[in-house]
Design a protein that fits this description.
Chain lengths: 291, 291
């Protein structure tokens, strides 16, 4: 096992399992064949062919698409699709900057293979000596990765919320980091992945931030999403990441980027170039898997 | 003009201009057709076909290959090939970790499209207030990029020299940074490119380092490779990079990575995701251009 294995996990694909999800002529997601076939039952909403699921042309606005797709999703939820309902909406768009074509419940976004965006925070402990960071253990009630190790703060980006505002909100909820402190977080880059796990295609861009926390600050969770926090030396983060999958699979990407930027993983690592390449090669949702 | 233009410049290719350079069955470079045809004149050294230039199988050791290829290169140099002779050798290998298959004069390495490795140092000025870094102007006598703007220290990696030792040597020669200070440089990642300019294919991996320099330290060049140094706010670095090609083309990559890591280029930039992707997607010398 190695850091590169963590990256390879986030690069696994079996595109034969999926059809493109197309809205307004633009590819915006990946839908497994089983769900695609079920969507044939909503001919007023979806036009399903052998290679794509298209939102029908008659639905030609953000509002009409969101309502029609949302109604279908609620019906499917009653049939047991989409575990992990969140009562939160993600934007569906052809790029991060593009205006949303519709919004979709977060709990269904994964099954539609929508590109999601999140903020991830490295909570650096501002103390001399060996560099340390706060590591969280995810609550057992989390729909994704219950009990896995995590960064101090991280969260998906709901529609209509800016990255910085989302970071400040998550800092408060997940770790009781005051807004004045959270505002000092520095953007340090983005890592991305497109990976497939069974009938789910996860396509995500992670916006990474570093924040130096005062040595007397201890994170306290308020929203029930974190079971606890521990201060870890960065060398321990590296060792545990390399040894197995104790960390949530995508958090591993963000943390490897952190270790690279802070020199804890350096050029003496035989995988250094491959790690740098793998971390940052953002998969093109519209191209790479289309083949 | 934009930061993304600087990255796109380093991603330009016209593979139809080149044949693979193959040693011991391994692709290690790119040779333009004109040079490839001239190499037919050395049948004891090179086997030239329509799609590749191979070092002949009879040359089966590092020593025999280096001598035979080196002799041919000296002959060609007399004919005017290979401007910019350096009296320094680069390793030719199938990867950074692999044992070298031969060594080749640095001045000829570009014409053979050998993957090169270099160290690049960001000299951060350790002073409160707006972050600043030392920017160099390259000497007009440099064979590559005379007069262009540059980082405080940077240098190609000669065969048999470690990255860290090379960095310390270049720090002394290029900027009079004492070894004890240079040793504090932190590796912060690698960026790579594979770009084509006329009959030259540049394939390079840049190992980046950050070093905080004391506010009373002023770099002084000793090897004639730098015309002068100036302290620049990072916002000025960003503006000049975005405005045109005043910086050496590959130094731009290393500096954009620096600006991303330090939050000077942030997610509000509409090209942020594309920049992160473009910076780090290391081209696979053995694959991508082979097509």
């Amino acid at each position: 096992m190695s850091l590169l294995d963590r990256i390879r996990y986030c690069r696994r694909r079996d595109i034969a399992r999926f059809r493109r999800f197309v809205v307004a002529g633009l590819p915006v997601g990946w839908i497994a064949h089983g769900l695609a076939d079920r969507l044939r039952g909503f001919p007023d909403v979806f036009a399903v062919s052998g290679d794509a699921v298209r939102v029908v042309d008659g639905l030609d606005s953000f509002e009409t698409r969101s309502r029609a797709v949302g109604d279908a999703i609620l019906r499917l939820r009653e049939e047991g699709w989409f575990p992990g309902w969140r009562n939160e909406f993600f934007a569906v768009a052809s790029s991060f900057q593009a205006p949303p074509l519709l919004q979709i419940e977060r709990g269904a976004a994964r099954a539609f293979g929508i590109r999601c965006y999140c903020v991830q925070l490295n909570g650096i402990i501002g103390r001399d000596g060996e560099p340390q960071t706060w590591i969280a253990r995810r609550s057992l009630s989390k729909p994704v990765g219950p009990g896995k190790l995590d960064q101090v703060v991280g969260g998906g980006l709901p529609i209509g919320v800016g990255l910085r505002d989302n970071l400040i909100k998550e800092c408060a909820e997940e770790a009781s980091i005051p807004a004045a402190l959270a505002r000092q977080a520095r953007p340090v880059g983005a890592v991305a992945y497109l990976t497939q796990d069974g009938d789910i295609c996860d396509d995500e861009v992670m916006f990474n931030y570093d924040l130096v926390l005062p040595p007397d600050f201890t994170p306290v969770n308020t929203d029930g999403e974190v079971a606890g926090f521990e201060p870890w030396p960065l060398t321990r983060v590296k060792a545990v990441l390399a040894a197995g999958d104790d960390f949530l699979f995508d958090v591993a990407l963000s943390l490897i980027d952190f270790l690279i930027r802070h020199g804890v993983v350096g050029p003496a690592d035989p995988d250094y170039i491959a790690i740098c390449e793998g971390l940052w090669s953002v998969p093109d949702a519209a191209g790479e898997m289309a083949a």
